[in-house]
Structures are given as structure tokens and as C-alpha cells.
Write a sequence for this structure.
């Protein structure tokens, strides 16, 4: 979808069926519900907020096309061809990445579409807020107080979308004058075109949104009937701040934020870790996207299966043997990341099936009874914060602290792997990269981790030959290859004549 067309769509045309939608010339239809009529109360703002939450979809995808969670593991080294594959995902697995490739199109369109929805609700907030009766912190049911919390969540989601775009489409996070993405803090006209903002402009904008969100969300709670981790919170904002600080090499700030966050929660033990991925407990989740198996929500396991998370569920993509080999049998992550070995419907990684190198089924999202493909999508967990802390400690020359942080995570996972006394910063970072691969597999991190850490360490993609052979694909992609930054999508190039393409990619 063209970015200009995303901006053109009205919020309620996107969220709800209201009898009419904007046409090609933005003529107001007789039965159309415009924003002034649609947003009149705090309840209306809250409905708009719910639509913004539902729009954000890093888990979207099926049949060889997908968004961030699909792409991070497929493009790198955590996936191989599945048992019933007919070639789904083979192009991106073969490192073919072009402006017309589905993943950059999906990430760009989804994040800017979500931003546009958020901006429309924020515009309505500015119109409605002065008319509301005043509230205060003590009276949490007062309209202005409730509206402030809605605004805080909208700003947090807008920041998260800009952060995603920043990470995928910015060639160099540390080059303040370099090109990043387009800052959108307003609803543009359909005829507008935009050049990309600089890194410093985008970072400042994201930080401002996060700061405002943290202030507005202070003291925010949800009713007892709701899971609090399905909503943006101060801790979710801090998790974003820690990610951005790491990206922009502000390691002192990253360590400070991660240390603070780890004082508010803890790593899940083995039992809680398993329950967290079956959606029966919060575990160590800071923020996750709610996915309801009873209402036809996105099925994240549909990125790898046609029907269900079983061998008979038509797995079109599987976990790589290389990833499987990283886990000790005692590590609880092995039981969660893969469908149980030995189960007749599970994995058989050592079975004699040369064409597929054994069957290794992805089990991190086991599905629900009401929908075999649906699970919540974990966006921020305390384990990621622990890994941010370890990396920041290493970069701040606290190698002993970094080793202690990694060892603590491995202990919680029942992983007997010994954590050495790191002899250098690079040794520590290499271990952090390994631990991020094991802990965050199939959660949308591997590609970005290799972009940020692998480039520095000289670690690119290096698949097992047997994994790569399942798709007859290359085994290696060098660190710092231009394809570790996504191309500006072709739909955007077509609609926006003044935007600059990223290095290495064709411009038309």
C-alpha cells in the first residue's frame, strides 16, 4: 500500500465499517462518519486507542510473506525449509531483498498506517480535551485524567512504530546527520511528499514522545478484568528507551535504564517461562500484544504453519539445525522454542531425512484451543532488558558485571553453559549476541542484532550447509552487507518522488 494512500484513509474507515469510506478524491459520502462526529467523548478516544493497538502487527504474515517476526529469523540463520514447503520464503532466505520485497513493504506500511491512526486520535484528543471536566490523580475515573492516559498510550505506540522504522530503515544509527525515516507527528494531506529526516531528528522525536508518554502514564492502571501487560506502561516506555539508547551508542544511559527496570521485575523461572508462552501467566512480560483466539486475530504461528503447530499442521518453515544445536537439553528454552522431540507430532532433528535435515518444528507459539495458530505477541520481556544490561556493562568496561548478568540469565533457564570471565569487550559482546539468539529466537530480533552487533564484531550470517541446502540457498552473508538495512519500499518510491533510497538498492 502506498504511504500516501495510508495517510489518506480515515481512522474509522480503517478500524470500523461505518457505511462508507474515503474515495479517491476524498469526497465526503452522505453516510460517512467523519472524525468530528466519531470522536466526541473519552469513550470514543478509547475506542480509537484500541484500534491503534490492533493495527500494530509485527506478527502479520503467512505462506511465505510476513512482517518483522517472520523476517528476522528467515533472512538470517534460524530457519530452514519446512516439511511441506513449496518454496514459501525462498527469495528472502536466499538474501534477495529489493524495494518490492514483501517484508519492507509490510513494515513500512504497517508502522506508518498505525502512526496515522494514532495521529488522528491525538488530533481528536486536542479538540476534545479542553471540553472535558477536570480530573486529578486521586480521581482516576475523571475524564481528563482518563484522557491523559489514553494520550500517553498513543504517544508510546507512535514512538514504538517510529523506533521500528528507525531500526530497519536507517543505515547508520550513530551518524547524526545521516538519513533515517520520515517523522510523522501530524496527519498530512494526500498530496504531500516528504524526504527522510536525519538520525538526530528522529532520535530526538522518539525521545520526546517517550518522555511525554512516561509522564502521562505515571500511575496508570487498568481494571482487574484486564491484563495490565497488554497495555503500554511506564516500564514499556523504559524498555523502548533502553533499546534506543543501545542503538545510538548511549551505553551509560542504556545501563542506567536497564538497571532501573530490572529492579522493578525479575526473570522468569523455568515453570513461569513455559507458562508465559502458552499465555497462561504474565511471567516476565513487560508488554505484549493481545491476540484473541476467539475473534479471528492474527495467528503468529501462521508464519510457519498452514494449520496448527504440529507435524500434521503443514509446517512450511522449520527451525534450523544450527539453532537447535545451540541449546543444552536441560535448558528450558529448548522445550519452549521447539516442539517436543520424540512426540509423534513433534520434532525429529536427527531423523534420516536428508532433504530437510530432520524435522525441527518451531514451538514458541503453541497456539490455543480455540485457534491453533493464535498466541499473544511478546514485545518487551525482562530477559531482553537483562541482555541490554549485560551489553551496556561490557561496553562501559564492566566485564565482570556483564559476565554476572549473562550467568544469571543462564541460571534461570537451567542452562549449564559456563559463563567465562571475559577477556575483552568483544568477547563479552560475542557471548551477548549468542545469548540474544537463544533467548529471543522467533521474537523479531536476530536480523537487527546482526545489523547492530554483528557488523561491529565481524559476524555475519553463516548457516550450516545442510540448513541452507534445504532451499538451495547461499550459506553466508558478510557482516555490514548493505542488506542489513531494509530498502525504502517501491510503493513509497512510486508515491513520493523526493524520498532517497538506501545505499545498494535500485532507485526505480
Amino acid at each position: 500500500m502506498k504511504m500516501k494512500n495510508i495517510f489518506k484513509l480515515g481512522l474509522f474507515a480503517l478500524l470500523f465499517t461505518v457505511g462508507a469510506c474515503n474515495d479517491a478524491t476524498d469526497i465526503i459520502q452522505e453516510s460517512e462518519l467523519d472524525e468530528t462526529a466519531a470522536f466526541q467523548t473519552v469513550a470514543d478516544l478509547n475506542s480509537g486507542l484500541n484500534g491503534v493497538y490492533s493495527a500494530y502487527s509485527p506478527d502479520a504474515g503467512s505462506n511465505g510473506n510476513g512482517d518483522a517476526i517472520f523476517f528476522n529469523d528467515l533472512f538470517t540463520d534460524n530457519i530452514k525449509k519446512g516439511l511441506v514447503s513449496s518454496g514459501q520464503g525462498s527469495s528472502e532466505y536466499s538474501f534477495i531483498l529489493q524495494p518490492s520485497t514483501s517484508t519492507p513493504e509490510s513494515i513500512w506500511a504497517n508502522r506508518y498506517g498505525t502512526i496515522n491512526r494514532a495521529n488522528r486520535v491525538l488530533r481528536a484528543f486536542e479538540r476534545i480535551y479542553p471540553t472535558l471536566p477536570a480530573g486529578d490523580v486521586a480521581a482516576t475515573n475523571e475524564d481528563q485524567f482518563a484522557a491523559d492516559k489514553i494520550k500517553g498510550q498513543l504517544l508510546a505506540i507512535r514512538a514504538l512504530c517510529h523506533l521500528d522504522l528507525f531500526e530497519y530503515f536507517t543505515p547508520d544509527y550513530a551518524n547524526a546527520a545521516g538519513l533515517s525515516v520520515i517523522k510523522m507527528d501530524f496527519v498530512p494531506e494526500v498530496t504531500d511528499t516528504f524526504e527522510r529526516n536525519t538520525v538526530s531528528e528522529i532520535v530526538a522525536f522518539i525521545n520526546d514522545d517517550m518522555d511525554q508518554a512516561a509522564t502521562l502514564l505515571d500511575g496508570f492502571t487498568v481494571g482487574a478484568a484486564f491484563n495490565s501487560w497488554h497495555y503500554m506502561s511506564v516500564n514499556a516506555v523504559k524498555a523502548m528507551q533502553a533499546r534506543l539508547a543501545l542503538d545510538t551508542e548511549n551505553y551509560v544511559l542504556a545501563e542506567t535504564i536497564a538497571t532501573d527496570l530490572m529492579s522493578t521485575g525479575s526473570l522468569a523461572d523455568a515453570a513461569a517461562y513455559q507458562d508465559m508462552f502458552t499465555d497462561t501467566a504474565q511471567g516476565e512480560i513487560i508488554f505484549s500484544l493481545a491476540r484473541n483466539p476467539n475473534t479471528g486475530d492474527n495467528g503468529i504461528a501462521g508464519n510457519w504453519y498452514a494449520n496448527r503447530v504440529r507435524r500434521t499442521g503443514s509446517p512450511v518453515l522449520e527451525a534450523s539445525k544450527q539453532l537447535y544445536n545451540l541449546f543444552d537439553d536441560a535448558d528450558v528454552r529448548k522445550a519452549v522454542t521447539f516442539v517436543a522431540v520424540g512426540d509423534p507430532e513433534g520434532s525429529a532433528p536427527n531423523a534420516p531425512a536428508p532433504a530437510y535435515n530432520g524435522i525441527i518444528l518451531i514451538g514458541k507459539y503453541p497456539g490455543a484451543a480455540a485457534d491453533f495458530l493464535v498466541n499473544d505477541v511478546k514485545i518487551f520481556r525482562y530477559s531482553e532488558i537483562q541482555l541490554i544490561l549485560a551489553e551496556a556493562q561490557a561496553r562501559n568496561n564492566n566485564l565482570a558485571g556483564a559476565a554476572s548478568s549473562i550467568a544469571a540469565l543462564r541460571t534461570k533457564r537451567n542452562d549449564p553453559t559456563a559463563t567465562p570471565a571475559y577477556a575483552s569487550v568483544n568477547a563479552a559482546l560475542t557471548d551477548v549476541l549468542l545469548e540474544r539468539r537463544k533467548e529471543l529466537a522467533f521474537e523479531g530480533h536476530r536480523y537487527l542484532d546482526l545489523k547492530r552487533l554483528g557488523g561491529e564484531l565481524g559476524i555475519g550470517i553463516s548457516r550450516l550447509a545442510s540448513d541452507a541446502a534445504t532451499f538451495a540457498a547461499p550459506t553466508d552473508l558478510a557482516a555490514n552487507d548493505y542488506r542489513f538495512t531494509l530498502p525504502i519500499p517501491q510503493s513509497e518510491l512510486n508515491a513520493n518522488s523526493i524520498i532517497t533510497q538506501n545505499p545498494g538498492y535500485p532507485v526505480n
